[in-house]
Amino acid sequence: MNAQRWKLRRWIQALLRQRGQVSIQATFTLITLINGGVLAYLIVVSAAKLQEGDTSASDYLALLLTILLAVLALLSFRIIDTRVIRPLALMARQARRIESGDSEALLTVQHDDEMHQLAMAFNMVLTNMRSAYNDLDRSNEQLRHANKQIADSIRYAGILQRSILPDHLLRKTFGERHFVLWEPKDIVGGDYYLFHSDGGRCLTGVADCAGHGVPGAMMTMMARVGVDRAIQEVGITSPAAVLHTIDSSLREILSDDQATRSIATSMDMGLVLLDFTARRLRFAGARISLFWSDGIELNSLGGDQRALCDRRRGSYRDHDLPLLSGFTYYLTTDGYLDQSGGEDGFAVGHERFTGWLLEHARKPLSDQRQAFAESLAQFRGDYPQRDDITILSFRFD
Questions:
Q1: DSSP letters of 313-337?
Q2: Residues 185 and 254 sit within 8 Å (Cβ to Cβ)
Q3: Domains of the chain: which residue ranges?
Q4: Integer angstrom CA distances of residue 331 from 153, 254, 290, 328, 336
Q5: Alpha-carbon distance 107 to 88, whole Å?
Q6: How would you class 118 by CB atoms within 10 Å of its CB: exposed for 0-12, middle for 13-18, buried for 19 or more?
Q7: Residue 326 CB neighbours (<10 A)
Q8: Fewest C-beta atoms under 10 Å: which of 104, 211, 240, 346?
Q9: What percentage of the chain's residues is helix, strand, coil (to nearest 5)?
Q10: What is the Cα 53 distance to its own chain's centre?
């Protein structure tokens, strides 16, 4: 008897420990066992009393009612177990399959009752969710494909934009006595640099078109056409005349397009004419300045305040300077000066930039590009690049 009680206690404890909580099935089984035990006890007591001989009609009635109650309890157990407990256990197992990632699993209930209606409602929601996820996956795949096509097109556009930059001509003319730091914010950008030669003279400069990325790159193509047309018309003798002609050409191109009136189409540009025979330099700028330094002395000459193709026409002037030996000359777009960084997120600014000019001006030109790039990277830290960056530098020895 004690061994049976010990086994029953162990079985009950195992039920209570299942998954660290009492399940509905375990609870129902435990209650059924307790009720069955009570009813069995009442039947045994009633039967024993009848065997004693001193019985009445009420004793027989009590025994009959106890037996009837036991039969009803058995039927109730059978109905609840079949229609509730087992379907719940089956639904729990199926829910675990769904949770584990089985994309075909659904809840199933054999009987047409409330449990069946609950399972069907859950299946409908689950099916709709799976359909929505499948649609989302297809949409994401389409987006990935479209994004790849766009990225490939932009990379190809970057190759095309790079092909119009005059790196070969600059190397042929200046050799190791120049450097270009050109870093578009995106794969393509609105900054570019130019070079044209004419005998013992050459015209070089930088330009910053409104916008960056693809819109900026499209503007550089238009600006390139404007520069070529201006040089064909007025030559390279006067950088200011080139700026005026580019301004007029761009206004003529864009004047008939209503859409351009609501977007920025302006362009900053700085041009330098170098006459190596006369050892002279002629500069004109539209919101771009010229700097030169030998590491001890620093000089600058500001460009005029109106951008090309601005809402109001600008006036541009030539400035003649001697081409000094030992000095390094710099043209830069505002992307370098406006880059955020440091502890407070302020821009590089004019003062910090001129300090770097004095620090790096005496280095070989082949080292200066890396020096300016590292100075900016250290200052920038984790801040994102704000704009396209271009520095064009040369030295005359």
A1: ------EEEE--BT-EEEEE-HHHH
A2: no
A3: 2-105, 166-395
A4: 31, 27, 5, 10, 11
A5: 10
A6: middle
A7: 13
A8: 104
A9: 55, 20, 25
A10: 92
Structure tokens at 10: 């162990």
Cβ proximity of 331 and 391 under 8 Å: yes
Cα gap 208→391, rounded to integer Å: 11
C-beta separation of 203 from 231 below 8 A: yes
Instruction: Report DSSP letters for 237-284, one per residue.
Output: S-HHHHHHHHHHHHHHHHTT-GGGGGS---EEEEEEEEETTTTEEEEE
The reported pTM is 0.70
What strands lie across the sheet with 267-275, from one edge to the other?
A: 191-198, 201-209, 267-275, 280-286, 319-322
Residue found by looking up tokens 């000359």 in the block: 329
CB of 251 within 8 A of CB of 226?
no
Whether 165 shows a pLDDT value over 90: the answer reads yes
- Amino acid letter, residue 212: H
Distance, CA of 230 to CA of 209 (rounded, Å): 17
For the structural domain made of 166-395, what CATH number should be given? Answer: 3.60.40.10
pLDDT digits (tens, 9 = 90+) for 297-355: 999 999 999 999 888 898 999 999 999 999 999 999 999 999 999 988 999 999 999 99
Of the CA atoms within 13 Å of residue 125, those in its CB half-sphere come to 6
* Average pLDDT, integer, range 60-72: 77
Bridge partner residues of 179 (DSSP):
393
| Distance of alpha carbon 382 from alpha carbon 377, whole angstroms | 9
**Distance, CA of 389 to CA of 338 (rounded, Å):** 9
Beta bridge partners of residue 330, listed in sequence order: 291, 393
The single-letter code of the amino acid at 72 is L
Distance (Å, rounded) from C-alpha 326 to C-alpha 191?
28
Spatial distance between the Cα atoms of 204 and 174, rounded to a whole number of angstroms:
11
